[in-house]
Amino acid sequence: MPGDALLELETFLPYRLSVLSNTLSQAIARVYDKRFDLSVTEWRAMAVLGYRADISAREVAERTAMDKVAVSRAVARMLKKGLIERGTARHDKRQSVLRLSVEGWRIYDQVAPLALEHEQRLLAHLDAEERQWLTRILDTLWKAEQLEAKR
Fold first, then answer.
1. Could you read off the pLDDT of 70-90 as tens digits, one per residue?
2. Which are the contacts of 6, defined by CB distance < 8 A and separation ≥ 6?
3. Secondary structure in 3-state letters for the chain
4. Of the residues 23, 28, 64, 119, which has the fewest C-beta atoms closer than 10 A?
5. Count of C-beta atoms within a 10 Å radius of residue 35
6. What angle do CA 70, 72, 78 make, to 5 degrees?
7. C-alpha–C-alpha distance, residues 57 and 59, integer Å
8. Which fold has domain 9-150?
9. pLDDT tier at 1 (50, 70, 90 boundaries)?
10. How many CA atoms lie within 13 A of 95 on its CB side?
11. Tens-place pLDDT, residues 79-137
12. Under a CB-based contact definition with an 8 Å cutoff, are residues 64 and 55 in contact?
């Protein structure tokens, strides 16, 4: 028997953002999966490592808000494919850190421009003011969620 609270998914912000995110990710994923045999998780890990090298798999998971197990599996696949290398942290020799390999950089240098082009095609549907508002809104929601998570 239904209660008083009816959750309409089509208007529920987390659902809408999730669906949009998945749709956008899948659109570009079809390109890098087909051409480079990369999953969404592998590409996200690669993107993080292309921006910030020598971080742990845990840090990759934190920066992408992806499940640690999914990141661990992606890291294992990427190590096997020779796309990343594992080393030790300079500040703590007990900690394992990751970086893109030469082959990883070769692929990153091809995929990153495709991702940026895709982003630009999407943003072209917004005028300059709408793009600024989108950035402000996303930043505000991110900060609000971080505060909620601390409660």
1. 999 999 999 999 999 999 878
2. none
3. CCCCCCCCHHHCHHHHHHHHHHHHHHHHHHHHHHHHCCCHHHHHHHHHHHHCCCECHHHHHHHHCCCHHHHHHHHHHHHHHCCEEEEECCCCCCCEEEEECHHHHHHHHHHHHHHHHHHHHHHCCCCHHHHHHHHHHHHHHHHHHHHHHHC
4. 23
5. 12
6. 100
7. 5
8. Arc Repressor Mutant, subunit A (1.10.10)
9. low
10. 12
11. 999 999 999 878 777 788 999 999 999 999 999 999 999 999 999 999 999 999 999 99
12. no
CB 9 within 8 A of CB 15: yes
Beta bridge mates, 84: 100
95 residue type, one letter: Q
Helix orientation angle between 102-123 and 13-36, rounded to the nearest 10 degrees: 130
* Amino acid letter, residue 120: Q
Q: Which two tokens stand for residue 73?
A: 């599996």
Q: Where are the domains of the chain?
A: 9-150
Contact between residue 143 and residue 150 where contact means Cβ atoms under 8 Å apart: no
For residue 6, pLDDT over 90 is answered with: no
